[in-house]
Amino acid sequence: MDPDSEFVFELQVCQWAELSWPPGRERTQPVLIARQLGTERRRWDTIIIECDPDALEARSRFGRERLDSDLLDVLRYAPDEWTWYRDALPDPGYPWRYVRESIHRAGDRGILETRTRGNRLQIRRRWAYPDWVDRIVAIENKPDFDASAARVLGEQLQRDVAVGLADEVWVATADGQERFERALLEDVPVEVGILLVDGADAEAIWQPRSLSPTEPGTRIEERPEGGTRDASAARFSYVDPDWKREKRLAIAERAYERGFRSYVDTMRPDCRHFELRDVPAGFLPYCGTKACHQTGSECRGGCPEYEPEPPTWRTRGWPIDGGPGAGIRRLLDRQRLRTRPGLEE
């Protein structure tokens, strides 16, 4: 692995978590792994969704695509019997025409039954939306984690702990960096767990404390800049449990749709130099012409080394239908589906 590539380290953490989460304990429930998800204010490198197994399979009835907040507001309150939508759904706090748009989107996707009676739009649920999310674990990845990085990230982790959106917060760093362990332990909040990752293996050197996502949280808006003459007060705001519940479900739905292998959607597997290398941690993208595990920002159509696959690679089924790039996409998609029971390949 390129020691400067946080992207490659991030993929290793994701693949380790998919196989071995939780660290040091036996897995008792399925997990979904995603990357680069969060809120408008905060995006985490790795997200682990611990799921109820039966409810996770029931979630597959609603399809592979995520359910956004507007669809969830309709599906969670849809009645068992035909009902005028305004009688069935709580007041959204915004114009009802937007609710009707969400109802029609749900009907078009086949996850809600709709009909019109007397110029009134009626709805009926097809299935109850399951409570499939048990816990959410957030991991910040820092492969090269020195004292300076620990201090900067420490303030952000304090905000994560105060808000309490996730059930646990961790920091993952590369193993074999003993000189960083003191900085890690001193500057990272005690509520945050620490993982040392070495390829396909990881060790928890500090266990996190469980946070309280069902209780009110605190958002740290501004801190004093410091110094002997700085007497200014920090500014805080209240985080409502209902807001946290909605955000957690939105994050989980996006994780269900994307997973962590969606990185290929922003790269160029149709380039003749693009490969997947099978390493102990799993499959990692590899650029044959640069001889390295490339990042998402490097692997794009504007890359000077980009060469599209020859047309003969994508015809006559050689070497696989659609060419190597299409085969790579299918492989990663099959791996993603393995963690989502009930979905048809």
UniProtKB/TrEMBL annotation:
InterPro entries, alphabetized: DUF5787 (IPR043901)
- Residue ranges with Basic and acidic residues bias: 218-228
Give me the ranges of the annotated region Disordered. Answer: 209-233
What's the protein called, per UniProt?
Answer: DUF5787 family protein
> What is the species of this protein?
Halapricum hydrolyticum
